[in-house]
Amino acid sequence: MDKQQLIDCQNRIKPFIHNTPILTSRLLDDMVGGSVFFKCENFQRMGAFKMRGAANAIMQLSEAQKQNGVVTHSSGNFAQALSLAAQSLGVKAYIVMPSSAPQVKKNAVKGYGGKVIECEPTLEARERESKHIVDSYGATFIHPSNDDAVILGQGTACMELLESYPDLDFVVTPVGGGGLIAGTALAAHYFGNSCATIGGEPSEVDDAYRSLISGKIETNKTTQTIADGLKTQLGDRNFPIIQQHVQKIIRVTEAEIVAAMRLLWERLKIVCEPSSAVAFAAVLKEKNQFVGKKTGIIISGGNVDLDHLPFGRS
């Protein structure tokens, strides 16, 4: 994937996405000891960056493929993103969701026009049901993070950030399935001025951190993290990009994630989900690296369960 593909992608999806705001806070700058610029994808359509990749992936399909629809398996933001992108482009979307997914998320997918197909809450069941839909309806499967068109779409958030602040020293993103950090790393490489990409990852699901060390895609034995959007693992399309263009991944504890999330709510006055706070938590954890530097942080989404906020009561 090259520079021109990113430019083409940005131009292609522009009518279907928001150029989200970039927020700053003097207090948070002082805490870090440098300048921090928050790219707020919580204000993106459907509330997360994943709208970018979903739109680009559908727009890259042939007319025949669009006629047969698209399918993905997801219990979270990509389920909503693909549904809304498909609705915006007049394409049918089949969304395979585990039966254990919150009803509010299933309702959101249906609200965006997606057809929900429930399955057992295992990866094997998700993949089996997705294949059944592909075989039965001729729908095109779109992976939430391990797809070239999706990766390019996610990279456009960093492109917009660099258009406003071209001299960033670092850009930091959360790491889950790897689509966002891979796209961001490509954008930083092609459009930044010696801008390094760093990932933030929960210690409880540190497969990407271990993958960079071992040189092969690692998995997690448990997924006990509040950052529910980061429980997935890297894929064969995004991992080589991460290996080549990501400087490091910083692991953070659950308490550090909650503390960072609270700071973002209190100081930026925004609703962001736990997964989004992981990148800022990483900067706070190893802030010596960011002292005196200009750092961009991708706030990946704002789809949070308001009935179960993690902040303790004093």
UniProtKB/TrEMBL annotation:
Where is the Tryptophan synthase beta chain-like PALP domain positioned along the sequence? Answer: 14-301
InterPro entries recorded: TrpB-like_PALP, TrpB-like_PALP_sf
Q: Which UniProt keywords apply?
A: Pyridoxal phosphate
Q: Cofactors per UniProt?
A: pyridoxal 5'-phosphate
Protein name in UniProt = Threonine/serine dehydratase
